[in-house]
Amino acid sequence: MLDKIVMQTRLAVAAAKMDEPLAKIENQVVAGSFAFSRAIKEAAWAVIAECKLVSPAKGTLCNTYTVLELAQIYAGNGATAVSVHTNTAFDGHINDIVKVKAAVKLPVLCKEFIIDEYQLYTARAAGADAVLLIAAIVSDAELVRFLQIARELGMDCLVEVHTLAELIRVQQTDARLIGINNRDLQTFTTTISQTFTLLKHCEPDRVIISESGIKNGEDAQKLKTAGVKGILVGESLVIASDVAAMTRELALSGSK
Q: Matching CDD domains, A to Z (predicted)?
């Protein structure tokens, strides 16, 4: 599934470059101020709340709210930052970031499958404060280059790892924000034990975020106690009967 999404993304980026060349995008970019990492570091406990309407594995997750409505709920109930999917596999669009940035004051993470520097420029042009970089789909050289370009654009990078081998690779770069994804990319099952396993190998100067499989405040507390700085949660929020209450539960549980 990941390979399929990456292939589709390569085709989409190639088409976008034809429609709107990089030189044109660069003229629309105003450098950011690293608001995402600042918000994470200043928070006692960070909740990155994700506007996730569709999952490639599970189909439609939420048809009650729009991306914008979810972002507004998150902002009003204790979230530290908002994550916005821009890949079509998740029914996302780059313009969703524009809408969210215009409506809420929280920093925004562009959740995308970054395989080309073009995407970094389009993310920043839309107003993204940070981008997700997935170690599993980029080479070491690409990772270093993307980190450098993002830094020049005033954007943070949350670098996602799934395995110890990926963690070792990422810690050979200057990436400060590392996301441990609890999803097995082969089976798509999730367990937060993956964070506990990899956390033992994380260098102390890295800021660690646990991603996927966090179901409630109890999970949040366990992760906070283990030493992570925060969590990125999408599905458990958008399928909750009360999204606002679940946002508050995750935010408050981790701060106890």
A: IGPS (cd00331)
Domain count, the chain: 1
Domain that holds residue 206: 2-254
SS (H, E, C) the chain: CHHHHHHHHHHHHHHHHHHCCHHHHHCCCCCCCCHHHHHHHHCCCEEEEEECCEECCCEECCCCCCHHHHHHHHHCCCCCEEEEECCHHHCCCCHHHHHHHHHCCCCEEEECCCCCHHHHHHHHHHCCCEEEEEHHHCCHHHHHHHHHHHHHCCCEEEEEECCHHHHHHHCCCCCCEEEEECECCCCCCECCHHHHHHHCCCCCCCEEEEECCCCCHHHHHHHHHHCCCEEEECHHHHCCCCHHHHHHHHHHHHCC
